[in-house]
Design goal:
mainly alpha, 95% helix
C-alpha cells in the first residue's frame, strides 16, 4: 500500500507540475492576447481618425469640384454670349456695307 501511495504521490506531483506549466502557458498566452488586442484597438482608433480626415477631405474636394463645375458652366454661357473677334469683324463689315448702300440710295434720291 505504501508503494501505491508513493506512486500516487509521484503521479500527483507530475500532474501538478504539468498543470502548473499549463497554467503558466495560459497566463503567457493571455498576456500576449491582451497586448495584441491593445495594439489592434490602437490601430483601429488611428484608422478611424484617418477615415474621418479623409472623409472630410473628400467632402471638401467634392464641394470644390462642384464650384468648379458651376464656374465652367458660367464660362461656357458667357463665351456663347460674348461674340468672337471674327464675328465682330463680319458684323462691322456687314454694317459698313449697309451704310454704303444707304449712302448710295440717299445720293441717288438727292439727284
Amino acid at each position: 500500500m505504501a508503494e501505491k501511495n508513493i506512486t500516487f504521490v509521484k503521479i500527483w506531483k507530475r500532474m501538478a507540475a504539468t498543470l502548473q506549466q499549463r497554467v503558466e502557458k495560459l497566463k503567457h498566452k493571455a498576456a500576449l492576447l491582451q497586448e495584441r488586442y491593445t495594439a489592434i484597438c490602437r490601430a483601429k482608433s488611428e484608422a478611424d481618425s484617418r477615415i474621418a480626415e479623409l472623409t472630410e477631405e473628400i467632402k471638401t474636394l467634392n464641394r470644390k469640384l462642384s464650384e468648379k463645375e458651376t464656374e465652367i458652366e458660367r464660362l461656357k454661357v458667357s463665351s456663347v454670349l460674348t461674340p468672337d473677334h471674327r464675328d465682330v469683324e463680319k458684323t462691322r463689315q456687314f454694317i459698313s456695307g449697309l451704310v454704303r448702300d444707304i449712302d448710295k440710295c440717299i445720293a441717288q434720291l438727292s439727284v
